[in-house]
Amino acid sequence: MPDFIYPVKIHQLFISPGHNYWGRPDRDPGSFLTFSPESITLDAGKGIRGDRYYNRKPDYDGQITFFSQEVYEDVSSLLSIENRSPVHFRRNVIIEGVPLNQLIGQSFSIDGIQFSGSGHCTPCKWMDFGFAEGTLKALHGRGGLRCRILSDGILTPGSFQLHSQLKLDLSQILNPLLPKPLP
């Protein structure tokens, strides 16, 4: 199979030891801090050391989450937001250069670390609270990528190459995930 290579840039990394929104539909958000470390340590099949989803359950599909820098900038522009960190999206890796929705169901690697795109990271109503009113609507179909970690490694911000067996359409980075047609 051919190996397609795409230049990507990891802008920021985030981890949090606890859940501020998940499982809290009728309560105020939690108070766990989110950290932006210089690197994150990834354990295959378990997740990111120190993160709230680490070793959650076997084969958990959200061991790491990716969010598009381009979508972050687009949503900020749409909502006239300046200087608000992407920390509010509660995703682990802010990455630039690839259409994340096209990696759903695909294996890929970044800096030699193997991942499997397991699904769309559906945004929740807390996005309006955490980032700005209107964020949930602006993120529809563009909430990021949930992945399983297939090999151990350390990820840092910087420029890397993403290897994929799938040829990606880079013009689709901002496009939302389309609903599957009914049979």
Explain the overall architecture.
The chain has helices at residues 69-78, 126-130, 135-138, and strands at residues 4-13, 40-43, 47-48, 64-68, 93-96, 107-110, 113-120, 145-149, 153-155, 158-164. The protein is mainly β. It has one domain (4-22, 32-167): M1 Pyruvate Kinase, Domain 3 (Beta Barrel). The strands form two sheets. A seven-stranded mixed barrel has the order 1-5-4-8-7-6-10. The longest helix has 10 residues, at 69-78.
Question: What can be said about this structure in brief?
Answer:
With 183 residues, the protein is mostly beta strands. It is built from three helices and ten strands.
List the helices and strands and how they pair.
Layout: E1 4-13, E2 40-43, E3 47-48, E4 64-68, H1 69-78, E5 93-96, E6 107-110, E7 113-120, H2 126-130, H3 135-138, E8 145-149, E9 153-155, E10 158-164
Parallel strand pairs: 4-5
Antiparallel strand pairs: 1-5, 1-10, 2-3, 2-9, 4-8, 6-7, 6-10, 7-8
List key phrases describing it.
single chain, 183 residues, mainly beta, M1 Pyruvate Kinase, Domain 3, seven-stranded mixed beta barrel, three-stranded antiparallel beta sheet, 3 helices, 10 strands, 10% helix, 28% strand, globular
